[in-house]
Amino acid sequence: MQPFSVNRTTTFIKSISLMKRKELLLCAQKLKTLEAILEKEYTTINLYKYRQVNDRLYNLKAIISDLETLELKILKNSWDNL
Questions:
Q1: What is the mean pLDDT of the chain?
Q2: Does pLDDT of 43 surpass 70?
Q3: Which of 17, 34, 78, 80 could bridge 67 with an S-S bond, Cβ 3.0-4.6 Å?
Q4: Where are the alpha helices (DSSP H) in 3-43?
């Protein structure tokens, strides 16, 4: 891989990771809000929505972990090729 290509790919992965982190924060905030509502009044919350947000939160954590692993592999390969 050419150094320019590696830098561009790494930058792209970092930008995706940053977007996913922002989405992760939003999901975490929604989850906290839903948990607060759940503590106050169990009947007012839609448990399906709660599960959706919770599942999305865990999916985002997995995506971010995968992106970080991919970034490390690309950087390692670029250093090995120098």
A1: 76
A2: no
A3: 17
A4: 3-40
Running DSSP on this structure, what letter comes out for residue 81?
A: T
Amino acid letter, residue 11: T
| Structure-token pair, residue 20 | 């996913």
Domain coverage including residue 7: 3-80
* pLDDT, position 4: 62
For the chain, the maximum distance between any two Cα atoms, rounded to a whole number of angstroms, is 61
Tokens, residue 11: 């930058």
Judge contact between 60 and 3, C-beta under 8 A: no
C-alpha–C-alpha distance, residues 9 and 32, integer Å: 34
The domain total for the chain is: 1
